[in-house]
Amino acid sequence: MERTARLGIGPMVAVVVILGLLSAAAVVAVLNALGVWKDSDEAKVNIVLGQYLRQIGEENYDRACGYLADSLKAELGGDCAATLRQRYAGLQSLNSSTRDHLENVDARTVTVNGSTATVADADIRFEITDTRRGEKTGRNETHTSYENAPDLTFGTGFTLTKTGEDWKITGI
């Protein structure tokens, strides 16, 4: 108590501060245990899928191959980039406008079962942000809308497998 008095705070204030710090530490521990502050597997899958599709949209097939598991690359044949180029070149739904939108994709539903995750084509959407002058305010307003992405897996959806901390695409 003598120490708290020298600091200019009473013993009751010191107790409240200590309890507050302990409560904050307990909240942080609970949030970490629940995974709230950590990247969830669903979020990691969404990021990998988004990066892969961004590379497809930019027609950077060499980089896109980097998101594929070795087993899938082997299935695709010797030249992964050439196979992806051929696969996606034939899709009429993958026009220049669609390719631009692949920069901002989001999977609404990611199903994780152990070290395997699946995303259905119907769950992949574009985030479209548009800035225009507001009719009432006369100021620029940003509007965000979502559109379903075209089927890029010929109906099979995406399958990803976790190896260590990394997720790789194992089925397209």
Alpha-carbon Rg, integer: 24 Å
N- and C-termini, Cα separation: 67 Å
For the secondary structure, the number of strands is 7
How helix-rich are the residues, as a percent range?
A: 40-55%
Low-confidence stretches: 1-7, 13-17, 19-38
- The topology string of helices and strands comes to HHHHHHHEEEEEEE
Question: Overall 3D geometry?
Answer: globular
Name the CATH architecture of the largest domain: Roll
Largest sheet: 4 strands, antiparallel
What does this structure look like?
With 172 residues, the protein is of the alpha+beta class. The protein folds into 2 domains: 2-34; 41-171, Nuclear Transport Factor 2, Chain: A (Roll), CATH 3.10.450. Helices cover 43% and strands 24% of the residues. It contains 7 helices and 7 strands; from the N terminus they run αααααααβββββββ. The protein has helices spanning 2-6, 11-34, 41-57, 61-65, 70-76, 80-89, 96-101; strands spanning 105-107, 111-113, 116-119, 124-133, 140-148, 158-163, 166-171. The strands form 2 sheets. It has a 4-stranded antiparallel β-sheet with strand order 2-3-6-7. A 3-stranded antiparallel β-sheet has the order 1-4-5. The protein is globular. The N and C termini lie far apart (67 Å). Mean pLDDT is 79; it is low at 1-7, 13-17 and 19-38.
